[in-house]
Amino acid sequence: ASAPEPPRPAIALLQALGLRDAPRGAPKARPVPPLMWRLFRRRDPQEARAGPRRKSPGATPRPCHVEELGVAGNIVRHIPDRSAPARPPEPSSASEPCPEQTVDFDLSAVEPLEHASLARLELRFEAAGPGVAPGSGWELSVARAGPGPVLLRQEVRALGPPVHAELPVAAWAPHAPTPRSLSLVLVLRPRAPAACARLVEAALLLVTLDPRLCHPLARPRR
Amino acid sequence: EAEPTAGGVPGGACRARRLYVSFREVGWHRWVIAPRGFLANYCQGHCALPAALPGPGAPPALNHAVLRALMHAAVPGNGGLPCCVPARLSPISVLFFDNSDNVVLRHYEDMVVDECGCR
Known about the structure:
The complex is a heterodimer of chains A (222) and B (119).
Chain A: H1 9-16, H2 34-43, H3 45-50, E1 65-66, E2 71-72, E3 75-80, E4 101-106, E5 115-127, E6 138-144, E7 150-156, E8 163-167, H4 169-172, E9 181-190, E10 197-209
Antiparallel strand pairs in A: 1-2, 3-10, 4-9, 5-8, 5-10, 6-7, 6-9
Chain B: E1 15-17, E2 20-22, H1 23-26, E3 32-34, E4 37-39, E5 42-44, H2 63-74, E6 84-97, E7 103-118
Antiparallel strand pairs in B: 1-5, 2-4, 3-6, 6-7
């Protein structure tokens, strides 16, 4: 029987790096998030060696661990929201709840063998109209689209600065494989009567551990 | 880019030689955000005595490697010399765009040869 054609060296190298195929190239209008730059600079020993803040020679980062986020992992993905931005209508009276806003994340790039160790929403809201900021802040609730419990409730003190909301991994990805997509419903409720706010930016920071690229920790020298 | 060796023959004792992998050369510069490339290096050189014995600060030699070098010195030709291989490696991280428009940071262990040894 004819054997499958051996992969060309470039494809073999991609596979060795755990990548299925060479990505098409940079999306046109997508800047690299500052957090990802920061994680890269802290993580890459050659960058650290070459960088102005030279680390002490002994301080190599722990393998398969993301120091800055404090979780196990060797792949960090910054996944943009792919749902169409929608302008929430103003509730007819302040006593009515603010409408839900949905976000949708494509997780198809995550391999079945990868275990999720952190899923953090990176959100930014803005006032839907002038003079809306209630002094007592807001309450954010997040649930999966469709029936099911609320995954988290969190206080939001002010609109404008980024809001980080960590999803309990056990609630949405208790074990591998990670679901291929994740649709969430967000409600940002003002604690005092005020107009609703609008979600203007949403992304998911997902940390996973690919055991195939992780060697057991080296045994200490005897 | 690799450190040239004299006339194609590995010169001198076993040690790490410079090898720089440029992502542009590999054609990945459109989707790799950083780094532009990395120093992978490689091991080359002979492992006869005294090279099979570690220099100052190098990882300890395997006794077996020293034994083979001794055997080769006494009776050249049977069993050959130990090999010059990586003895200490370090990781790299790559930041890139994937096909789902995600920005991905992946960490790869054992990608850079820091030290070579006779094994």
